[in-house]
Amino acid sequence: MNIVIFGAPGCGKGTQSEKLMDRYGFYHISTGELLREHIAKGTELGKIADSYISQGHLIPDELMLSIIDVLLDSPEVKGKNIIFDGFPRTVNQAKEIEKLLERRGDKIDAVIGLEVPDELLVDRMLKRGQETGRADDNIDTIKERLDVYHTQTQPLMEFYKGKGTYRPIDGSKAIEEIAESIFSHIDSIAEA
Ligand code: AMP
Asked: Is the CB of 12 under 6 A from ligand 1?
């Protein structure tokens, strides 16, 4: 089973992905984390990614997709159930990942949408910025990231609703309560 955990920056995708990994042993692909690791190591990819991430912009689709394409064939990912966290982020990425998975006889089974009002997202990201020092969790970049989310990523909701895979979850609730809602949805799919 492959799952997309979907939602605006600060909606709790990383936190809930960890819950899902603990419970079901999914392999977690967080594109944001992966890019931040490259930035920390100072790789060529990291340098390119940083120029977009620091502005609150998305890195180009072709670059993102080529990273995912390679990752899907890596020994640590091959044959595993995957949680995609922070990917896809554009309708184009969603269409392309469908093709990449199809080529491997696979698909996305469920899209969990963590729905959280913008005001709460801003509060959470500012808090995370203070706690972790994450560079793009500053007010100017947060505003840009939310803008990018609404214009480029949110249309994916309709895309996945059209496919019947989108499941909205109230992401403003307590962490454990959200996790329970996600678990029961995944269990119901697994039983079907
Ligand atoms: P995240 O940790 O998921 O909030 O991602 C942090 C930043 O990494 C984003 O603001 C983007 O600049 C970049 N990024 C992460 N995932 C993607 C993606 N799927 N497509 C393009 N850019 C991405």
From this structure: no
